[in-house]
User: Fold Thiosulfate dehydrogenase [quinone] large subunit from Alicyclobacillus sacchari.
Amino acid sequence: MGSAGRLLLVSTWWVLGYEWLVSGVNKALGSKFIDGLQKQMAMAVQSTPYHWYGWVLQHVLVRCAHMCAYCVMVGELAVALAFAFCGFACLYGKPSQLVALVGVVACGVASFMVANFFLLQGGAYFFHPSDPFDEGIPVDLLMLLLQLVLAVDTWNAFRSCRVIQNTNPSVYRCEHQKNEYTEETNQ
Assistant:
């Protein structure tokens, strides 16, 4: 990967990580989130355009809103740390199976959370002419799409970094190590 591509990937990890960090810290330091989440969920039951999600809210999530609130706070902070870790690993060119696994799991958790936020707020994913003052694409939907792209890219990196069990010293772990080994032997 070229330096521009690496910079774009690192920036994406860090921007998304910063968004999750700010969101998690705001929830952790704010005194209203834990008690207010149940009220938000109860209001969303009636107003969400996704009726199936309203049913899930009413019959499952509203009943355990305090537990959900703690899970969201911890999840947001954990995703922020994982995204920062992946960003640093990409910046220094140190991909490994651990980095790829952390990235895939963090993207999965983050995508699950942001999809729920999108549905809870009743976000529109297509044209919404009845509300022309609303944003074009909600930030939650944009984050969901970016995180899914990162998950696929990271999963592909995970697959290409499988350890090859062989005693031959010319066997390499990842594609980037293959290139480094080939360059060293050619010199």
Notes: The chain has seven helices and no strands.
